[in-house]
Amino acid sequence: MGVFKRIKQPQIITCFLLMGLIMSTLASCRFFLGKGIYTITKIQKLAAYSIATIETANGLYQIAVDCKTGMIKSGEAVQPTDKANVARDICSTSASSSSDSKVQSIGWIRLGAVRNTSGSASTGEPLVATSQPVTITPTRVPTINDPVVVITGVNVRVDYPKPPDYKLQEKVSTLTPNQMIVILEIKTFVDQNSSSNNTIIWARVGVPR
Q1: Is the dihedral angle over the CA atoms 166, 123, 178, 147 positive or is it negative?
Q2: 155 DSSP β-pair partners
Q3: What distance in Å separates the CA atoms of residue 56 and residue 70, rounded to the nearest whole number?
Q4: pLDDT band at 37 (very low <50, low <70, confident <90, very high)
Q5: Coil, strand or helix: which one is 196?
Q6: Could you say which of 113, 115, 149, 206 would form a disulfide bridge with 103 (CB–CB 3.0 to 4.6 Å)?
């Protein structure tokens, strides 16, 4: 995990602008920090969030920021003491980007379950593992358009399981840990073929493009 700690001297930013334009897909802004350097290599502007790909000595990470509030929505690479500074860097770069990104739907995944048998779930309710793991972080029921990060390998399917048999639908791809996805639609149900006392949560998800 990257550890970002800002030094006391003023931030040095190197951004290359060509003919006054900055591409939304390549920010190329370098930020000098006490523990090293990280570079914003990509900015994707969505309706509610800006998603940045940052490169550090430890690898690539994706971080989603609500630039209206300055709050980081997702991004496990950022330590608590660094969140405000990193969010400011991302939002400043995003403000210079020329266009918004779109989200391409890729299919449905199981997020986890909640401990009730009502067949419904509230936003923010904790997700729990059953015989299958929770697949996203934050580990709570998201809202539509939330960016989340995959924390375990999960199959993407053409649709969610439906009554009466709740059979798994055709697999179309697989997501791997650390991928950032966007929640587009949520379905909740109690699997009548299971003896568990849980409501199952599935979501249609997408990726920025």
Answers
A1: positive
A2: 174
A3: 21
A4: confident
A5: coil
A6: 206
Question: What integer pLDDT is reported at residue 23 of this predicted model?
Answer: 37
Residues forming beta bridges with residue 154, ordered by sequence position: 175
Taking only the tens place, the pLDDT of each residue in 173-183 is 999 998 999 99
The torsion angles phi and psi of 93, rounded to 5 degrees, stand at -70, -40
Measured CA to CA, the distance from residue 133 to residue 10 in angstroms comes to 44
CB 6 within 8 A of CB 89: no
Q: In this predicted structure, what is the pLDDT of residue 38? A: 77
Strand order in the sheet with 36-45: 13-14, 29-33, 36-45, 50-56, 59-66, 71-74
Given a contact cutoff of 8 angstroms between Cβ atoms, the answer to whether 134 and 151 are in contact is: yes
Give the number of other Cβ atoms within 10 Å of residue 136's Cβ.
28
Q: Cis peptide before 80, with omega less than 30 degrees from 0? A: no
